[in-house]
Structures are given as C-alpha cells and as structure tokens.
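Structure (tokenized):
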C-alpha cells in the first residue's frame, strides 16, 4: 500500500521531482524525465531508457556515467508519451545518435516508436532495442513477443558501457541486441501491488501459494503453485531458465536476483546462495552477479532471476564501471557538471483564422469531449477492474488522465474561437501526452486524425462526419496494427465505423447514424469476452481474459453511446435539426 502522497494523480511527478532533488550530482529534471547532470563527451551515443514509474531504480535511478544518458518517465506503470520521449532524447543527444531501449510493452512501443520517427525526421539518428527477457510471456520461438522485466538491467548496462567507451551507434545497437538475445528472466509473486490511491491490489495470490511468471505492472502470474521451500524455488527458477538458454551459450553467466518491492534483502541473499550453488553444479561460472532491488513493481511481494550468458565482448562491458544514483560499479573519475539548455519554446504561433463554421464545430467538439470525460469518470473503476483481469489495471486511470487533459485543451481552444481542426488536434495531443499507455497513444492519434480530416472549412456536409470517422479508425489500425479478433478496441471500432458509414451512405442523419453505430460497438465489445487477446499487455494471460470483455473495447462502446445520446438530445440547442453538428453542417455561419 502506498501511503505518502497529497494527491495520487501527482504521485509519479512528485516522486520524480524528489528523486532529482536528492540526486542533483547525477541527474537534472527535463520535461518528460531526467537527463545526466554531468558532462557527456561530444559525439557519444545517447542511451535513452524509460517506461512507466513505479519500478525504481528502473528507470531514472539508472541514469549516470557508464549507464543511461537519460530516462523518459511515464506515469505509474504507464509508458511515457511520445512527446516526453522526444524531448528527453533531444536533451540527451550529444551528437552521436540515440539508442532507445525499453521493455517490450505495447504502449511503450507505440510512444517510443513515434518519438523515434520524429527524431529521425529531424536528422537525429535514432535506433531501438527492445528488452524481451521474460520467458513466461511467450515461447522461445516467439522471443520477439516476450515482455521485458529485470533483464532491462543487463541490456542497459552493456549498451551504456559501450556508449561510454566511445563505440558508434551501430556497435552500441549490435551489443544491446546481442545482450537481449542472451538474457532470460523468470519471476514469481507472493502478493500483488497497489497503485497509489487505489484501495485494493491489482491482483492477489491465494494464501500459501505463489504465482509463477508475473509481470512488473501488477499483471498476475501465468499459474499459481503451492509455496515452495527456498531450495525448491531456486531449483525451479534455475531449471526453467537453463532449459531456455540461447544457442552458443558458453559457461560464463551473470546472475541477477531481483526483489520486486517488499521481499527482504536477507531473503533475496538466502535464495541467491542456493541459486549460485545450482548454477555452479550445472558447470557455469557466475560472473559479477547482482542481488537486490533493480527493477521493482511498487510494493509487490515477489522476485525474479535473470541470467545473461556472456561472451568476451559482453563481459568486458558488463564489468565496466558505472556511477548512477542506484547502480555503482568500479571507479570512475568524477565528472564535471554541465549546463543544460532551458526548455525550448515549442508552442506554435497561433496564426489560424478559423471560419465561423469551423469554430462552431470546434465548440461542439469541445462539448462532446466534455461528455467523453464525464462517461470515463463514471466508469473509471469498472474499466480498471476489467484491465486488472489480464492486463495491468490502469485502463480506467489512464483513460481518465487522457480525457481530462483532452477536454481541458478542447475547452480552452474552443472558447478562444479555434477551428475544429485545432480543437481536436490540441485535444488529441493532450490526451496522448497525459495518458501514456497504449490507449493514450491510440486515442490521441485518432482524435488528431479526426481533427485534421475536418479541417478549417467554410462549411460542412454530412460526408465530412463520415470522413472524420474513417480517419479516426485508420489512425488506430495503422498505429496499433491490431487485426479484428485480436481482442482489442479495434473489435468495437470496426463495427462502429461500418455501421456509421452504411447509415450515412443511405442518408441517415448524424444522430441516427451515431446511435446505430454506438449500439454496434457496444454489442461487439460485449462479444470480445469470447476472444483470446493476441495484442497488448493481456496477451501473455490470454486464458485469464477469456469470458471477460476487452477493456479498450468496452470503453470505446461506452464513449460512443454517450456521444450518440448527447447528439440525439440536440445538445440543448432548441430547434436544431436533431443535432448541433447537423446544424453546423447545414449553416456555416450559425453560432451557438
Ligand atoms: P496499456 O495496455 O498500455 O496498459 P490501457 O490499459 O490503457 O493501456 O489500454 C489497454 C487497451 O488497449 C486494451 O484493452 C486494448 O483494447 C487496447 N489495445 C492494446 N493494444 C492494441 C493495439 N495494438 N491496437 C488497438 N488497441 C490495442
Ligand atoms: Mg492497461
């Protein structure tokens, strides 16, 4: 249970501010995360790591000489937003290119991926190496689908040491890929973890049992087992990892026993002693091991074992010195502090001349966003609980952070008379930025796409609504690449789009088309209960998810129902032809 906070919504930000205040000799705060506060030689590759908060010392605690250059820090268990990653990487860049490295989770992949595109487009050469060490999350022949847990440390450490040694981006990337390929982890949980402000843990383990194959975001384990003795536990972890060893493994291994939050160090050491004996008995030599808290999951009671099979080159970089707030090895000469440039003023100049029709539609869009916020707020808990079944339990709070920011940005722009294009692009950017997570990236880009489709026109016709729905849908399928049947929000989104387009093609009014489409989305969301998740965080726990609908599909259904009801009500505009959008579409000059 997390007890020290003023407002749970500010927990991650305030904890990061305090971390920086306690470690100014190492790190400085930048918009979106932290960057080394010490000199980085010109031309050095910048290693930018990151992920959600709640995993200390991952990720900010690993920023320092010989390890990461910077860390993008998302909200509790939620990926940082693309804008954050971008700004942190810009602050970290020393002219040698950027390597982004992070655990393989859908939300992180979307946000870091968007940041990478933007950095490359600006001429900052940027590559990505995903960490995929968790053997419980997919079989070996699908290693690229595995998620990243404590193996983050081996990949970051070796890439960071290689960058520090002055290797070029190609070489740092190559070593990071090889380290990841030779790293395996497996974790167990004895009890779940609780998000700040939540009154129940994200999952719990039956008394006298342990859960094998946990995730580090409160995703429950893959299977429950009676609690073993320490010797049995050591044997289980070692034998599972050895059975999964890479080709050409060799006999020298790094072993990391990682505590997830509330297991005592004495217990970790006790287990480590047994693990070391087993590894030695298996003919392996344990090289410079680690035992302690390295990648945690808030107050989760649990631990993991990571093995990295070394070769000569990897061993050299694993053994190299590093000096960060939470990870120190060997001796490094003290570094001079560096001056960090202040944040760039990126606010675009407001040169827009909104047409009356577009400003009118902008006000309607802002009112719709306020409705979306209200319906999400009403269902926060239900959405979180659904996501906790096989995901990480943050769908409610993530959506809420997103819609709160989107509705505020929408309102601010609409009241200043902005076009619908500007209202929706500002709202979408705010959504993605504040929410993080998979759904934040998808909803943010979709709202932006709808805004761009509506543009700033002299007048609007019914066909424009269809174009906006199509653009909204395409943004989500292009970015997330989910197929129908993967058990994601796409399973509700496509039936919504199809019903909407069919109704508008046959001349239905906006309100009628929306009502039918929302009903189709809700029914499709309900039917996702029969599916196994093939994308996103719930995939490793597919069996647990059976019988329960997909949280992203459910929230999509709820939101579309609310919008349909709102538009049908005429939104308080007496005499409006069924809806204010229809009114705006029919008369470009009409105001509220
Ligand atoms: P996270 O998974 O990062 O914790 P959320 O919990 O907010 O993010 O959102 C989870 C939802 O995101 C899932 O229920 C699913 O509907 C949706 N989702 C996950 N991956 C994809 C994808 N590739 N395409 C479309 N939707 C996805
Ligand atoms: Mg989630």
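Design, position by position:
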């Amino acid at each position: 249970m997390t007890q020290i906070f003023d407002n749970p919504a500010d927990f991650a930000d305030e904890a990061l501010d305090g971390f920086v205040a306690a470690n100014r000799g190492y790190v400085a705060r930048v918009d979106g995360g932290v960057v080394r506060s010490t000199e980085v030689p010109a031309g050095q590759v910048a290693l930018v790591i990151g992920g959600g908060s709640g995993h200390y010392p991952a990720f900010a605690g690993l920023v320092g000489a010989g390890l990461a250059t910077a860390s993008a820090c998302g909200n509790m268990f939620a990926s940082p937003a693309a804008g954050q990653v971008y700004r942190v990487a810009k602050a970290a860049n020393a002219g040698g290119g950027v390597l982004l490295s992070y655990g393989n989770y859908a939300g992180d992949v979307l946000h870091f991926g968007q940041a990478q595109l933007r950095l490359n487009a600006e001429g900052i050469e940027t590559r990505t190496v995903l960490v995929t060490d968790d053997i419980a999350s997919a079989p070996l022949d699908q290693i690229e689908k595995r998620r990243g847990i404590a193996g983050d440390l081996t990949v970051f450490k070796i890439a960071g040491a290689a960058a520090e040694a002055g290797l070029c981006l190609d070489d740092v990337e190559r070593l990071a890929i090889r380290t990841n390929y030779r790293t395996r982890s497996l974790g167990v949980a004895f009890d779940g973890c609780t998000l700040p402000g939540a009154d129940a843990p994200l999952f719990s383990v039956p008394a006298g049992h342990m859960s094998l194959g946990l995730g580090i975001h409160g995703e429950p384990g893959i299977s429950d087992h009676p609690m073993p003795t320490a010797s049995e536990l050591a044997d289980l972890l070692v034998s599972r990892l050895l059975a999964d060893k890479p080709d050409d493994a060799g006999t020298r291994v790094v072993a990391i026993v990682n505590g997830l939050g509330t297991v005592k160090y004495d217990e970790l050491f006790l287990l480590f002693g047994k693990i070391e004996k087993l590894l030695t008995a298996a003919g392996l030599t344990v090289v410079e091991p680690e035992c302690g808290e390295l990648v945690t999951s808030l107050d989760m009671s649990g631990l993991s074992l990571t093995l990295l099979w070394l070769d000569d080159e990897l061993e050299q970089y694993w053994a190299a010195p590093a000096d960060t707030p939470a990870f120190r090895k060997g001796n490094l000469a003290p570094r001079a502090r560096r001056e960090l440039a202040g944040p760039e003023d990126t606010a675009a100049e407001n040169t827009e001349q909104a047409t009356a029709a577009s400003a009118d539609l902008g006000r309607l869009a802002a009112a719709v966003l306020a409705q979306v916020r209200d319906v999400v707020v009403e269902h926060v808990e239900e959405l979180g609980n659904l996501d906790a079944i096989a995901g990480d339990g943050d769908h409610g709070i993530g959506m809420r952070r997103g819609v709160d920011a989107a509705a505020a940005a929408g309102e601010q722009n609409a009241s200043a008379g902005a076009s619908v294009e500007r209202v929706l692009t500002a709202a979408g950017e705010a959504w993605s930025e504040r929410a993080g997570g998979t759904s934040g990236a998808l909803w943010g880009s979709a709202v932006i796409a709808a805004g761009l489709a509506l543009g700033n026109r002299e007048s609007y016709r019914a066909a424009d609504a269809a174009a906006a729905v199509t653009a909204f849908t395409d943004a989500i399928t292009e970015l997330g690449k989910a197929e129908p049947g993967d058990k994601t929000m796409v399973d509700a989104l496509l039936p919504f789009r199809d019903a909407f387009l069919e109704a508008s093609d046959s001349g239905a009014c906006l309100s009628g088309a929306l009502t039918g489409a929302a009903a189709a989305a809700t029914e499709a969301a309900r039917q996702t209960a029969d599916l196994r998740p093939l994308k996103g965080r719930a995939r490793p726990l597919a069996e647990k998810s059976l019988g329960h609908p997909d949280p992203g599909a459910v929230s999509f259904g709820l939101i579309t129902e609310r919008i349909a009801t709102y538009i049908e009500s005429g939104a308080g505009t007496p005499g409006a032809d069924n809806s204010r959008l229809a009114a705006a579409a029919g008369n470009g000059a009409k105001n509220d």
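Reviewer-requested clarification: The pocket of adenosine-5'-diphosphate (ligand 1) is lined by residues 106-107, 387, 391-392, 394-395, 398, 437-439, 442, 476, 480-482, 488-490, 535-537, 550-553 (CB under 6 Å). The chain is about 45% helix and 15% strand.
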